[in-house]
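At this stage, I wrote out one protein, both as residues and as discrete backbone shape codes, and that material follows here.
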Amino acid sequence: MSFDLVFFGGTGDLTWRKLMPALFQAFRHGKLPEGGRILAVARDEQTDEKYRDWLRERFKEVEGDKRPSDEEFQRFAAMVFYRRMDLSQPEHYTRLKEWLGERQADTVVLYLATSPHLFTQICEQLGAAGLNHSRVRVVLEKPLGHDLASAQQINRVVRSVFEEQQAFRIDHYLGKPSVQNLMALRFGNAFFEPLWRRESIANIQITLAESLGVGTRGPFYDGTGALRDMIQNHALQLLTILAMEPPASNDADAIRDEKLKVLRALKPFTADSVVRDVVRGQYRAGSVGGQSVPGYLQEAKVPADSRCETFVALRTEIQNWRWAGVPFYLRTGKRLAARDAQIVINFRQVPHAIFPGAQRANRLIIKLQPEDGLELELLAAKGGAPGEALAPVSLDLDFDKAFSGAARVGAYERLLLDAIAGKLNLFVRSDEQEQAWRWVGPILDAWAASEEPPRPYTAGSWGPAASSAMVARDGFTWPEEV
């Protein structure tokens, strides 16, 4: 299958840090279809060769085992081209159409790796130039808007130019092998389904923790914050996969229909419940990994009076028969104690304890990063003596070791290959995305109306103490406090 893949924002960080390396890995793994061309477009005046030289230098920053050899890069770079393009000039879209028209590729993928405020302008110009025919797919990078109204505006323009099945709204978390394993875990194994409900599960906790600060992204992050950056998309997508009903098939819309039902069943926030069930924080100077780090307000280009949140923890419920009364806790933050993305399923205690001593409930820990695996915590008697107290034991599965003979496909590699192939399963539909914005909207409104600043927390900790207090109110704890 021949394809043309165009990166708008071809010299931007996302393209050279994530997208081009992911495409190279697909090329190395033999997954990239033959007969493909990769075109980077940006405002810089460069030739194909100068861009390839520039890209070669950028690839030197790729982590060791993923860095291409000179021979590999030469073969990959033969597919890469560059064109100067001013995104505000209609004639430049005409030139792009001419370049693409040099041959009739089976698929044309237009990847908008630009600032979201350019999405509508680019889509309108693509439509005016006739670059919206049935062979075209447009990939929209997050964040898609900054609230419900802006997301709806972008979607209105996208739908006026492209059919819904041509629009690939990307959330790179959905491309992670560990996240894809959530579907396999739930719907490929018979013994989980009878337990996956309110009668057996006490609570579910989703943690997306980063030890890094905002770095050089201060201006972007200060206008975004942790709620928009992580909760509205990544965390909610994980929640929907965990909580959805079994879809009728593996068809993209069958899956996305069930995810949408979960989003619609989430308990809506009010001004009062935001105060009670949402904690926002902002990191102060501290120590991470033995190194002193500055506070958020001391980061480059961050306003000294910023009220941007770098931490969010919240409690919610899903109002349906399967999950009624089960609290879901979501948290994310920067400059936390460790880089750790995991889901903890806390099961209920046994109804009647016949063994002595306090008994810990069973837990299923789904590890997303930096490890990729499953850990099931059980209770067992050490010596098997009558009346002996039980002790916790773990069944630990490391997917990287279990599948060591197979090349594991990275998130962007998987999503780029799916976009080329036209597979929508791991992409977000517009109604999903808008419903997620609709749900977080009252939180944003309450914060905007409040005079309370984010709660401070020390870099290297697990966030404000109020986060632990929120969970403790229900009689539970976060994983690191067990």
User: Anything to note?
Assistant: The chain has two domains: 3-169, 174-409+459-481.
